[in-house]
Design goal:
heterodimer, A: 164 residues, mainly beta, eight-stranded antiparallel β-barrel, 10 strands, B: 321 residues, alpha/beta, seven-stranded mixed sheet, six-stranded mixed sheet, 8 helices, disordered N terminus
Chain lengths: 164, 321
């Protein structure tokens, strides 16, 4: 039986908004110098290929961990703050990109991985590439981001925290 | 019996880091429970001696094998119903199993129907369903349950409260009805705001025998009375009796043993088997608390011949041929 099934759609709530404020701490290594940073994430659109085929695979902004970690492709926007020397406004940037998640253990709830690519407002739209691994339904993970821009290569190591 | 010394303060210290993490994450598992779970997570669960190899009982019209927590294998004549199957060593990554499953998954018979009462990690185990999917014919989840149920090889269906499905043409063929209970339908915490229907109890009817499965419920007199009105002859109620403490928090979600016996009375159930205790570290209860309180209440109410408290792995023939 493959008739579509309606399930409750994730909705924007105050607790969800509160959890989105929690930053993911990171260390950025730029020209051989390490700087502390933080990043946040919005997910305007996500397509899940891990959810039941009888429900909608599309999510926007409020994304349940199962839809994401069980296998998905998302478009994301990540505001980022890196405390390097310079003006406060220059320490902020935005990364816009796509990321794919792959379930590794327990439909991704126990362990999942991701790869992604983005463009950043740092250094006039430098491209960067990333890989990550997640546990506890995606609540916590580690992501390594590398920007191979010749005049400004940098690495970012992020402790990804996402409650929902 | 206190497997893994779950009450020790040493465990609490070992768990401080992860407890802090749990608080930071706003995880659905309370931090103090995570702390208690630490040693158990890295230990081997206590073994169950003399496990049953072949659970099919030729002498039974109704038999129940308690596999642990809310997982029971119910045999009614020639059909098997499996409730909230969990065979994993932990649930949700943070809650450790104290005692191994009372039946090896390899010895599970072909299950006609598996029932999922709600979507919490200790009731909907995706890993377990991967493991045993070839032994399940069909599975029912509460309404909204498909949100977190991936595709498996068996048939799966949602069943909303007071909805029934009959599997067969005969009047006494297997019939499953979802009945309301008092709990919640979330899985990850934040989703409690919209997962408002995905928890249920079930009534199973076959060949004139009626079994009530409460899943995980608080005491709700109306729910039990309404169910009894529709099903006036319940032969067996399988009811949760924990977690108990802290009562001010748990009472909205979980029956304690006295309430389970009150529920049995409201359901007019002839017999009762308690579940949902002494399997996973999922509360601040000491190991054995629920069983001791139930035993005392059963004695005080003179229900010794109607309430069967099983050990994990034990099978009870409730109605003989």
């Amino acid at each position: 039986m493959t008739a579509p099934v309606d399930v409750p759609r994730p909705i924007l709530t105050a607790p969800w908004l509160a959890t989105q404020i929690i930053p993911s701490p990171e260390i950025a290594i730029d020209h051989g110098t390490a700087f502390f940073g933080m990043q946040w994430q919005l997910t305007p659109v996500l397509y899940s290929f891990g959810v039941n085929r009888r429900i909608s695979p599309w999510r926007g902004f409020v994304v349940d961990p199962f839809a994401r970690q069980s296998g998905s492709v998302e478009g994301f926007i990540s505001p980022e703050f890196i405390a390097h020397s310079g003006n406060f406004s220059d320490q902020w940037s935005v990364r816009i990109g796509t990321r794919a998640y792959f379930p590794l253990v327990d439909h991704g709830e126990t362990l999942s991985a991701s790869i992604g690519a983005a463009v950043s407002t740092v250094h006039e739209g430098a491209a960067d590439y990333e890989a990550g691994i997640y546990t506890l339904y995606g609540f916590i993970g580690g992501v390594v981001t590398y920007s191979p821009t010749p005049d400004a290569p940098r690495w970012i190591f992020t402790l990804k925290i996402r409650v929902f | 019996m206190d497997p893994k010394g779950i009450s020790s303060t040493r465990n609490a210290r070992n768990g401080m880091f992860l407890s802090g993490l749990a608080i930071l994450l706003g995880a659905t598992t309370p931090a103090c429970v995570v702390a208690k779970s630490m040693d158990a997570l890295v230990s081997t669960p206590q073994s169950v001696p003399h496990k049953i190899q072949n659970p099919k009982r030729a002498d039974a019209r109704l038999a129940v094998l308690w596999i642990g927590h809310a997982t029971t294998l119910i045999q009614i004549d020639d059909v098997f119903i499996l409730t909230d199957p969990v065979f994993t060593k932990s649930v949700g990554g943070l809650s450790a199993r104290l005692i191994e499953p009372g039946l090896d998954a390899a010895n599970l018979p072909q299950v006609n129907v598996a029932l999922i009462s709600h979507l919490h990690f200790d009731h909907l185990s995706l890993d377990t369903l991967d493991m045993i999917q070839h032994k399940i014919d069909r599975l029912y989840v509460p309404k909204g349950g498909f949100a977190y149920l991936p595709d498996y090889s068996f048939e799966s269906h949602e069943l909303g409260w007071w909805k029934s499905v009959q599997l067969g043409d005969r009047p006494d063929s297997l019939k499953i009805t979802a009945v309301p209970v008092q709990h919640n339908g979330m899985r990850y915490g934040i989703d409690i705001a919209w997962m408002k229907t995905s928890y249920t109890g079930y009534v199973i009817q076959y060949h004139g025998i009626t079994v009530y499965y409460g899943g995980d419920t608080a005491f709700n007199a109306k729910d039990f009375s309404d169910t009894s009105d529709l099903f006036p002859s319940i032969d067996l109620a399988i009811l949760p009796i924990g977690p108990i403490k802290p009562r001010s928090i748990m009472e909205a979600m979980h029956e304690d043993p006295p309430e389970a016996l009150d529920a049995m009375a409201l359901l007019h159930a002839k017999t009762m088997i308690p579940i949902h205790f002494d399997t996973f570290v999922n509360s601040v209860d000491e190991f054995g608390d629920a069983a001791r309180l139930l035993d005392a209440q059963v004695k005080a109410r003179h229900l010794e011949d109607k309430v069967f408290r099983l050990e994990i792995g034990q099978q009870k023939v409730v109605i003989t041929k």
